[in-house]
């Protein structure tokens, strides 16, 4: 585990330095380099550990699990508005959604559960395997997400204007080239479709709480992964989205109560925020 | 047992929880001979339990769920009789809108109900009085008086209509035992409901709607705060001396407890008279004529008053008058009672009860199972219907978000939203009961001035009304 973490960390640092190589840089989160063949054995050993880690509701990814309770409604209500009497258990039926940086599939499965045709992409083969395996094992989940190990800019090649919704939750803070990332995310979106991001804000508070956040809140990423400089502010996000022909519809502050493991929408965007935008025709 | 041990070992060595879940279910099924497995079982088909079954059954998000309602008493045929039942409830606007949304209200309206448009509450130990007038506070009726059995019949008419297909009802159900699910965070088992005839049912979510002595609550093993008031509520159907529009609810605070008249029609009202147990036993033994005299005394008799209280009250009146506020002098005279409907006199024990938890893993309480109040403010079943509305909303929201109905986050939301409403109401009702069963002059003075002032101050009155109707 520790080795993977170290690896990932190095990868991030490298990515930051590598920024000029725009088109080649991996823009999705959670990427781990597997070039080095000597680590293969360890990796397999860790595989099951990490599998359990991802899907243990009280494990290190527990904040991501509980976060579903607010990001699923956000995405659902952003994509469909349904009067109370007509609601069904699968409101997202027939909606194609891309989960960028899907990791172990925590959000992808949750969206598939309410009917969406989800494609989860992640640059890490490991994580894609974990996601794939879990969704196959989950007998209660009939409508399974599709997982692909790729980056969003690669995915754009054959999915131009394909999706009704695109989600990148807790991802962009790890991305080196944010412009390209957002441009690609918007590219796969149908005109009129909606795009959702959640990410920590770059403020004094997150700078100070940075350690606390990566340790308690975003446990899935190794310590030191959240580089303060990598964080974006709601203004920057809005700017990038508007420049890519999107109309920003909502910005909410997010708050995580880690004692209760409960998320809520709040007015203050000081710590984390969610942003929703519509791609213009 | 061995099998279970093995299952636990399995659990420790594999990550695939779901596979185990089915093994575990299988083994409980073998052990107990489960007759049927349901998503939701509602234990108790009183007014609250039946309304909940109806609300869940009608909800489009829950149409795929299998629901079972277990009621201990036999299925009774209902017929509207000319004589009113002696058990009635005053339903507030919130209950009305819930019932309307479930299409139950139209059955009640078609049968009979009486609106309450005015309410007069006054103190036997002083001149203090408070008057609520629906038109200047709510723009609508304050409440509606409906017979319990008529309401239950209306609910059942909808519940058994062709619009609801996923609710099964078992009448005469004798439950012998519950074994509640354990949720250790990894693996959730089912709730098991055992019947005395040997049938065993399993469910994901068990809802206790089984009244103040709830066996579900006992099985949950939660702390239950309760006391008896050493009071009984005597009910009866009253024939009034004179016909009138009769849309006023009357309540007079006697030193022994409140007496209340709820309107039924032009010439009849329903009595709810709370008193100490000894007094109740005495009153139950009186002939019906003597009992009628006792009621008229309770409504009209002058009680001995403290001079000090009198002086202060008239001083306050004059100040209110000078400030241009209502001084309470515009009191209406209560009706006189001619007779009671033969055999309609009955008595019920009164108590307070608060379940510290409304939920446990896979279990929730609604209605009197979760909370019991003194009937002096006519809140009891209205709180229960509030539970029904909120629980239905939270469960359907869980499904709409892709969660299991037993997910703790949504059950916790139910608990906290209901306790935030119910507990203050219960405390206020209990405090009123205590305040008015004391006849020490300083207490009488304080409450009389308080009541007089509340009556004069429109915003406070409005606040009380709006809490009582939600
Ligand atoms: C004198 C008096 C006057 C009142 N006046 C008012 C009023 O004006 N307004 C108001 O809002 N409220 C009033 N109330 C309160 C109101 O009657 C109760 O709040 C209401 O009846 C509670 O409904 P419930 O369905 O929760 O419980 P209950 O009515 O107690 O129903 C519980 C049901 O569960 C069933 N049951 C219990 N145990 C089992 C078991 N083991 N197996 C199967 N079935 C079981 C019972 O048969 C019953 O049908 C008054 C109460 C009293 C005593």
UniProtKB/TrEMBL annotation, chain A:
- Write out the catalysed reaction: a 3-demethylubiquinol + S-adenosyl-L-methionine = a ubiquinol + S-adenosyl-L-homocysteine + H(+); a 3,4-dihydroxy-5-(all-trans-polyprenyl)benzoate + S-adenosyl-L-methionine = a 4-hydroxy-3-methoxy-5-(all-trans-polyprenyl)benzoate + S-adenosyl-L-homocysteine + H(+); a 3-demethylubiquinone + S-adenosyl-L-methionine = a ubiquinone + S-adenosyl-L-homocysteine
Provide the cofactor list for this protein.
Mg(2+)
* Taxonomy, superkingdom: Eukaryota
Mode of membrane association? Peripheral membrane protein
Q: Where in the cell is it found?
A: Mitochondrion inner membrane
Q: Does the keyword field hold Repeat? A: no
For this protein, the Enzyme Commission number is: 2.1.1.64, 2.1.1.-, 2.1.1.114
For the Methyltransferase type domain, which residue ranges apply? 98-197
Looking up SUPFAM superfamilies in the UniProt record yields: S-adenosyl-L-methionine-dependent methyltransferases (SSF53335)
Among its keywords, does the record have Signal?
Answer: no
**Signal sequence coordinates:** none
Q: Which GO terms describe its molecular function?
A: 3-demethylubiquinol 3-O-methyltransferase activity; metal ion binding; polyprenyldihydroxybenzoate methyltransferase activity
Quote a single Gene Ontology cellular component term: extrinsic component of mitochondrial inner membrane
Per UniProt, Mg(2+) binds at: 170, 173-174
**Which GO terms fall under biological process for this protein?**
methylation
In which pathway is this protein known to take part? Cofactor biosynthesis; ubiquinone biosynthesis
What keywords are assigned to this protein?
Magnesium, Membrane, Metal-binding, Methyltransferase, Mitochondrion, Mitochondrion inner membrane, S-adenosyl-L-methionine, Transferase, Ubiquinone biosynthesis
Q: What is its main location?
A: mitochondrion
Annotated binding of S-adenosyl-L-methionine, by residue: 71, 101, 122, 169
The text of the family note is: Belongs to the class I-like SAM-binding methyltransferase superfamily. UbiG/COQ3 family.
PANTHER family associated with the record: METHYLTRANSFERASE, UBIQUINONE BIOSYNTHESIS O-METHYLTRANSFERASE, MITOCHONDRIAL
Cited function:
O-methyltransferase required for two non-consecutive steps during ubiquinone biosynthesis. Catalyzes the 2 O-methylation of 3,4-dihydroxy-5-(all-trans-polyprenyl)benzoic acid into 4-hydroxy-3-methoxy-5-(all-trans-polyprenyl)benzoic acid. Also catalyzes the last step of ubiquinone biosynthesis by mediating methylation of 3-demethylubiquinone into ubiquinone. Also able to mediate the methylation of 3-demethylubiquinol into ubiquinol.
* SUBUNIT field: Component of a multi-subunit COQ enzyme complex.
Q: What is this protein called?
A: Ubiquinone biosynthesis O-methyltransferase, mitochondrial
Organism whose genome encodes this protein:
Diatraea saccharalis (sugarcane borer)
UniProtKB/TrEMBL annotation, chain B:
Describe, as the record does, how this protein assembles with itself and its partners: Component of a multi-subunit COQ enzyme complex.
Any single GO CC term annotated in Swiss-Prot or TrEMBL for this entry: extrinsic component of mitochondrial inner membrane
Q: Which Pfam families match?
A: FAD_binding_3 (PF01494)
This one is known as Ubiquinone biosynthesis monooxygenase COQ6, mitochondrial
Q: Domain FAD-binding spans what residues? A: 178-319, 361-421
MF annotations from Gene Ontology = 2-methoxy-6-polyprenolphenol 4-hydroxylase activity; 4-hydroxy-3-all-trans-polyprenylbenzoate oxygenase activity; FAD binding; oxidoreductase activity, acting on paired donors, with incorporation or reduction of molecular oxygen, reduced flavin or flavoprotein as one donor, and incorporation of one atom of oxygen
Record-linked SUPFAM superfamilies:
FAD/NAD(P)-binding domain
> Quick one: which gene encodes this?
coq6
Q: What's the superkingdom here?
A: Eukaryota
Q: What is the top EC class of this enzyme, as a single word?
A: oxidoreductase
Annotated membrane topology: Peripheral membrane protein
Under which EC number(s) is this enzyme classified?
Answer: 1.14.15.45, 1.14.15.46
Function noted in UniProt: FAD-dependent monooxygenase required for two non-consecutive steps during ubiquinone biosynthesis. Required for the C5-ring hydroxylation during ubiquinone biosynthesis by catalyzing the hydroxylation of 4-hydroxy-3-(all-trans-polyprenyl)benzoic acid to 3,4-dihydroxy-5-(all-trans-polyprenyl)benzoic acid. Also acts downstream of coq4, for the C1-hydroxylation during ubiquinone biosynthesis by catalyzing the hydroxylation of 2-methoxy-6-(all-trans-polyprenyl)phenol to 2-methoxy-6-(all-trans-polyprenyl)benzene-1,4-diol.
What keywords are annotated for this sequence in UniProt?
FAD, Flavoprotein, Membrane, Mitochondrion, Mitochondrion inner membrane, Monooxygenase, Oxidoreductase, Transit peptide, Ubiquinone biosynthesis
Where found, per UniProt?
Mitochondrion inner membrane
Give the required cofactors: FAD
Cross-referenced PANTHER family: UBIQUINONE BIOSYNTHESIS MONOOXYGENASE COQ6, MITOCHONDRIAL
Reactions performed catalytically: a 2-methoxy-6-(all-trans-polyprenyl)phenol + 2 reduced [2Fe-2S]-[ferredoxin] + O2 + 2 H(+) = a 2-methoxy-6-(all-trans-polyprenyl)benzene-1,4-diol + 2 oxidized [2Fe-2S]-[ferredoxin] + H2O; a 4-hydroxy-3-(all-trans-polyprenyl)benzoate + 2 reduced [2Fe-2S]-[ferredoxin] + O2 + 2 H(+) = a 3,4-dihydroxy-5-(all-trans-polyprenyl)benzoate + 2 oxidized [2Fe-2S]-[ferredoxin] + H2O
* Listed pathway(s): Cofactor biosynthesis; ubiquinone biosynthesis
Which protein family is named in the record? Belongs to the UbiH/COQ6 family.
